[in-house]
Amino acid sequence: MSRSPPNRQALLLVCGLLLLLAGPSRSLPTPPRAPHLFLPRGGSSPPPPPLAPFSTPPPGSSAPPPHPVPLPPQPFTSDDLPPPTDPSVHPPPSNILPLLRLTYFLFFLSLGSLLPYLPVYYHSLSLPGAAIGRLGAINPFTTFLVSPLWGALADVTDKKGTIFLLNYVLSVVLRSLMPRFATRSTSALMANVLLMSVFNAPVKSLLDATCMALIPQGGYGRMRLWGQLGFGVGSSAMGLLLSDGPELQFKNVFAAHFVASLPTMAVSAYLLRVGSLERAPRRKAAPKSPAPAAPASSSGKFLAGLKHVFSTPAFLLVLFLTFSIGLASGVIENFASIRMREVGGSGRDISLSRAVSAAAGVPMFWHAGSLAERLGTPTVLVCALLAYAGRFFIYSKGTKPAYMLPAEAMRGATFALFWSTVTSYAYELSPAGLESTMLAFVNAMYGGLGQSTGALLGGNLQGKVGTEVMFRRFGWGCLSYAGIVALVFEGKSWLGYGRMDSIEKSSPTKKQ
Q: Where is composition skewed (Pro residues) in this entry (predicted)?
């Protein structure tokens, strides 16, 4: 008996579903938004412009029907011009969103394969707490100094992708050679870390700047969650290579870090070749207050960015609080794994803690945009400070590695909401052509000056009173500071913002 012919409609339906799931139309949803991401709760869009008046004919006349009186001509601005086209720039590929997700996943996987274990590696070299603090402060402090300069260079030359890929490759090579420098002397190790930090400083902010120009507005958190997943997978996998005899095992980890970085280089090189990492289109919207035009010269463009930043008091306040959160992060990132070792933890325990942190951060990154709109930027920053205080106390009181897992869960959730909020805030505020510079300022305050200060303060205090007491003291200090910040926002402050929502009103809108 012959077989019945296949159902063509069913086959077409299945093919259509597969194309819907994997095709270019699978873009991130753009939620309905207010004119600016950081309008206060209850804020609304500005009222529409009034209608033009009508001319009314006298009664009994046979005049034509009323018609609008022409309004006076409005001043012409450069925003009325269509965006310039450059035939030398290739259009982004249709599968740009999956490629960006893959880039974030692979990039943070390579970082997670080594960065969480560097303090443990320094500790395995029998270095004192002060020396570990100094080594941990080199990278963030160098980021604070050179990251804005790299960002300005990328904006002026319009070569974000080239600078990103070159700096990433050089930083990976220098980081992989760290054990060879450590066998010589501590000074040689510090020189290696310093040179690596110079090239590593701009890579995260350049990747974020390129990504935010290519994705739908409000989708940064949902894109960044792939980096959170990658970091968790990389740190969890590499933690299994560590044991109580870490000398040989750490050499394997450094080698594995280099191998894990190769896919990131390949995907980034492909995106650079097709033009997606260079001159990405920028989403435009009419600002509430005109942003300064970027000068053509390199120095003038950088100075214009500085002027724009320092003329916005609300953004300066956000930068200062970002520095404060970075300080707390610098303490934890450099000494949490050491604290786990002190209570009997192994590489498997550190691996599990990173997996818990990544799992907690993924859903928070997904909902970060809507939560930031509901809570407001100041509330997000205060909640981040309170969460760091809780983490300090958990690390201090924990007597087993398993007792510290709630602190790692808080880490993932808190960082996801905080970083998504401040990154989107800085990008929305940035003048056209200065996106990398503005994001570099945020990265410099958090991952630069903040974390370097935290590493130095934590290292000095840990060498005097021990890790347990150090975490407890930082916990009380962070809790007190969070209370002061909340009172400043809620009351009639000398900063002139009034209540917590008022900081939103002073932020100019860049895009919708």
A: 45-90
Sorted by sequence, the CB contacts under 8 Å of residue 14 that are 6+ apart come out as none
Per-residue pLDDT for 15 more than 60? no
Domain that holds residue 124: 96-275+296-505
How far is residue 176's CA from residue 459's CA, in Å, rounded to a whole number?
24
Residues 6+ away with beta carbon under 8 Å from 15: none
Nearest to 129 by CA among 413, 379, 335: 335
Write out pLDDT tens, residues 46-57: 444 444 444 445
Note whether residue 465 is domain-resident. yes
How many CB atoms are closer than 10 A to CB 442?
25
Cβ count near 23 (within 10 Å)? 13
* CB-neighbour burial class of residue 70 (10 A; exposed 0-12, middle 13-18, buried 19+): exposed
Dump the DSSP string for 413-437. Answer: HHHHHHHHHHHHHHHHHSPTT-HHH
Phi and psi at residue 68, in whole multiples of 5°?
-65, 140
Specify the pLDDT at position 309.
Answer: 66
Tally of domains within the chain: 1
CA separation for the pair 112, 115 (Å, rounded)? 6
How many C-beta atoms lie closer than 10 Å to residue 380's C-beta?
22
Q: Record the tokens describing residue 135, joined without a space.
A: 């080594």
Q: pLDDT at position 70, please?
A: 47
User: Which CATH number belongs to the domain containing residue 250 in this structure?
Assistant: 1.20.1250.20
209 part of a folded domain = yes
Please tell me the distance from the alpha carbon of residue 155 to that of residue 394, in angstroms, as a whole number.
Answer: 42
Strand partners for 54: 68
> Could you count the other beta carbons within 10 Å of the beta carbon of residue 409?
17
Q: What is the pLDDT of residues 307-353, one digit of tens each?
A: 766 777 777 888 888 999 999 988 988 888 888 888 888 777 877 88
Looking at residues 499-507, what average pLDDT do you find? 43
Measured in whole angstroms, the distance separating CA 52 from the mean position of its chain's CA atoms is 45
What's the rounded Cα separation, in Å, for the pair 316 and 349?
Answer: 39
Instruction: Kindly state whether residue 85 falls inside one of the protein's structural domains.
Output: no
Q: Is residue 451 part of a domain?
A: yes
Phi, psi of 457 (to 5 degrees): -65, -45
Contact 365, 225 (CB under 8 A): yes
Q: pTM of the prediction? A: 0.65
- The answer to whether 125 and 182 are in contact (CB under 8 A) is yes
Span 227-243, pLDDT tens digits: 888 888 888 887 776 65
DSSP per position, 347-398: HHHHHHHHHHHHHHHHHHHHHHHHHHHHH-HHHHHHHHHHHHHHHHHHHHH-
Is 477 within 8 Å of 147 (Cβ atoms)?
Answer: no
Q: CB of 372 within 8 A of CB of 424?
A: yes
Does residue 88 have a pLDDT over 60? no
The answer, yes or no, to whether residue 14 has pLDDT greater than 80, is no
